[in-house]
Amino acid sequence: MSVIVHQGDLPAGAFVGVSSVAVDSETLGLRLGRDPLCLVQLKGPEGDTHLVQLDRATYDAPNLKRLLTDPKVLKLFHFGRFDIAMFQIHLGVITAPVYCTKIASKLARTYTDRHGLRDVTRELLGVDISKAQQSSDWGAAELSPEQIAYAASDVAHLHALRDRLDLMLAREGRLALAQACFDFLPQRAALDVAGWDEIDIFAHT
Fold first, then answer.
1. I want to staple 114 with a disulfide (CB 3.0 to 4.6 A). Which of 5, 34, 119, 148 is the partner?
2. Which of 85, 73, 77 is nearest to 15 (CA)?
3. Which domain holds residue 72?
4. d(C-alpha 39, C-alpha 37), whole Å
């Protein structure tokens, strides 16, 4: 399947009828409120991967926003907390419902502290993905072939990872706990946006 780059928004017919879509984003940095959202990557269970280079002057992407908020489509992330917060800030939407493979990994793979996408994908799927383009200029007018390949790889395996992690969560009796975390994730992102990104409001002190 191919990787298709769109300018400004998804085409109207993209992902019609899918029940889940893998999502990731690229930004100019990792600080909320300072660094702009530049690119959103999306892939269904089958078919092409879509990369949306956003118009940072307007962030007018109605088809993308509709998909992110569609209650019938599960959005799969790895460390969705950051992406969801970025979407709230720049696109003005609350993304839901969601599933986060990093949260699932931390609940299921308690035998390790390595929960990065590359680590989880290598162990559970036997696939080694490259992170070489992680720190690059995602605000460039034209993406390089290396950037496109990297961006696509970040959503290529999330559906397969969810399947494997769900089996592990079920085995350990933690599916319901994981679902509760996923349900809360948009609120956790909203706390980050509101200024509680480095403060654990659930802590005693």
1. 119
2. 73
3. 3-196
4. 6
